[in-house]
UniProtKB/TrEMBL annotation:
SUPFAM superfamilies: Putative DNA-binding domain. Residues 18-87 form the HTH merR-type domain. Keywords: Coiled coil, DNA-binding. Pfam families: MerR_1. This is MerR family transcriptional regulator. Transmembrane segments: none annotated. The keyword Nucleotidyltransferase does not apply. Residues 84-111 form a coiled coil. CDD domains: HTH_HspR (cd04766). One of its GO terms (molecular function) is DNA-binding transcription factor activity. It comes from the Bacteria.
Length: 144
């Protein structure tokens, strides 16, 4: 019945919304009303069923715990927590983009090296490249 991630159905991962609000509240250590409030404020955005019911993912639960930690242990207000979450999401997106661009650059370098190797392989082995230039040398012997 359960897939690769313990406690989740087959095919579910940490982003799959599977937990009803009562289970999410229990897992996060918060009251269900607090979860509703955080949803309204945009701190945590759970998935929704076709009937409008909230469904929380493992990632949502971790985020709820982090909101609670920042609020209670670090003394950050909810507006500050929301900004922190936004900035962390932006950093994650930028890291992902840097990773994509790094892979693209590596692929471009590999393609360029392959193309250069193909050009070098096409050289005739019996010919030696010679620069085409004309030079004039004037020799004047020393008088004795």
């Amino acid at each position: 019945m359960f897939g690769g991630t313990p406690g989740l159905p087959n095919g579910a991962d940490e982003d799959t919304p599977v937990f009803v609000i009562s289970v999410a509240a229990q897992l996060s250590g918060l009251h269900a009303q607090t979860l509703r409030s955080y949803d309204r404020q945009g701190l945590v955005s759970p998935g929704r069923t076709s009937g409008g019911g909230r469904r929380y993912s493992v990632r949502d639960i971790a985020l709820l715990r982090e909101v609670q930690r920042l609020s209670q242990e670090a003394g950050v207000n909810l507006a500050g927590i929301k900004r922190i979450i936004e900035l962390e999401n932006q950093v994650d997106a930028l890291r992902s983009r840097v990773h994509e661009l790094t892979e693209e650059l590596a692929a471009a370098y590999a393609a360029a090296e392959h193309a250069a190797a193909a050009v070098h392989a096409s050289y005739r082995k019996d010919l030696v490249p010679l620069r085409q230039q004309t030079s004039l040398v004037v020799w004047k012997p020393k008088k004795r």
